[in-house]
Amino acid sequence: MYDSKKDALEKLTGIRSSKKNYYMELKKTIQEVTRQNVQLEIINKLVRSITIDMSFQDMMKEVVSKLREVILFDRLALLSMESNELRITHVFPDTLTELKYGEKIPQKDSLYWESIYKNTPIYHHVSSECNQYFEDTILRNLKIKTVMVFPLIIKKQPIGVLSLGCRDKVDFHQNDINFLSQVADHLSICIDNASLYTKMANMRTDLQNIFDAVTDMLMQVDLHSRIVHFNHAVPKFFNKSPEQIMLQKWNDLFYNGETPLTSSPLEEVLTTNTSMTHRIHLKNGKILDVFSHPKYNDGKLSGIICYVKDITAKLALEQQLIQSAKLAAIGEMAAGVAHEINSPLTAILGNTQLLMMEADPKSEETELLSDIYNCGVRSKKIIQNLLTFSRQDHYAFEETCLNTTAKQALNIVGYQINRNKIAIHLHLSKALPTIFASKQHIEQIIINFILNAKDALVGIPNGEIHIETGTVSHDIPLLLYEKNKNIDTYAYIAVRDNGCGIPPENLPQVFNPFFTTKDSTKGTGLGLSVSLGIADAHNGTILIDSKINEGSTFTLYIPVDGKGGVQ
């Protein structure tokens, strides 16, 4: 019975020894099984702890910390294969290295390269006398006596090498080698996944950078019209944060949730599965061109890519160019008409004056002749304005005193102002530099300002006109600064009234030729357009500040000439 039990135990355990030796061997077997279980648990922990978004540095720290639970080693090195070149990338601890990170390992007589070529782990004792491998000198200097090298292979392609070194001469058990080979295999997968993740992240960043480099709006919309991806131009255009725009519906963003007057560009793309182009008008006056393209995943429609371009400024510029072309044509026509009419008009005025001298002042004929003469003078002024508008009038530039010019202008129109019981207030700077300008034309602008102010005060009790001169250096209006950044000082004359003001919708048109809100007998609509042309000829400009029922201020800015003295 005993013999049969002993035989049975020996068959189960493979142990043919005494009872004492049997228990010792059994204990060793249990310890080995326990150790293998611990190693498997270490591999499991290692796989769970390493994530694809983890940096190589953090990944290697996890490997070192887990391996030291079951394997004694003093140095761990990771080498990566890049463009068929093996380079050292990480060493733990980083003090145990003689090679710089990124340094290339030569293939000849290399322990690391032999492991790759043979595609097998290599267990190597470093000789204290001779070099078997290129790495021996380096390892000897680091006092490493035993090294284990494991190739890192993915899909039969080497991606690197894992090396463990000990400062003592150690004979690794085959089970340890198997365990470390498994660690190397899992590490290869983790490194490859992390590398792929990094490449994908970099590719996504590159695509996003390209996406954001487009100054127009780009967005991706899902099948429920929700915005799921967009570039930086979208929040900038709508003045919203990215969080406010993400997953917002198209109509809510573009139409504030209201039903668009025309069919939505997205609906047509979803219906037809073809690219579409639409022009939409927003409530804030913006005009957008929307280019919509269907997006497919695995052959199925998954969303819409929208390219949205704000063309408001472009259309305004086109209208401005058309208007400029019209004005150029009007200018040429006006110059021709003015020259043709000037000669007969001079004869009409001269002959009318002669007839008036010979006629009885109290007769009906004199009154008719006076009307003819006044109409002729008015026509001559219109022709003069037309010539100025077409830039064919003569500019005689000279040192000009704005204060003196303002007083001379008042002498010409002062009677009309006083007759309308309007108070004039002068605020003339006593230290105003002279300007290099055409005195006659500057006077024409000031007269135009004053007469416009007078007309704005019709029916206004206690009407007032303020005329102010001065200079501006530090607070130059942006329009002037952008026009000529080399000019740092401007002289100005401003004419301000407390009249009816200019309606906001009329402000953009006040400088357009022939635009006027006055009766046909009181204005031609050329005054301000001519004045602006004169200002441009002097490298200056005219700015308007107006509020309904509060009044208007017209300001002429002219650059101060460096040669001008103080008035």
UniProtKB/TrEMBL annotation:
Coiled coil: none annotated. The keyword Zinc does not apply. Its EC number is 2.7.13.3. Residues 203-273 form the PAS domain. It comes from the Bacteria. It comes from Aneurinibacillus danicus. Residues 336-562 form the Histidine kinase domain. GO terms for molecular function: ATP binding; phosphorelay sensor kinase activity. It catalyses: ATP + protein L-histidine = ADP + protein N-phospho-L-histidine. The keyword Protein biosynthesis does not apply. InterPro entries: GAF, GAF-like_dom_sf, HATPase_C_sf, HATPase_dom, His_kinase_dom, HisK_dim/P_dom, HisK_dim/P_sf, PAS. Keywords: ATP-binding, Kinase, Nucleotide-binding, Phosphoprotein, Transferase, Two-component regulatory system. Pfam families: GAF_2, HATPase_c, HisKA, PAS_4. This is histidine kinase.
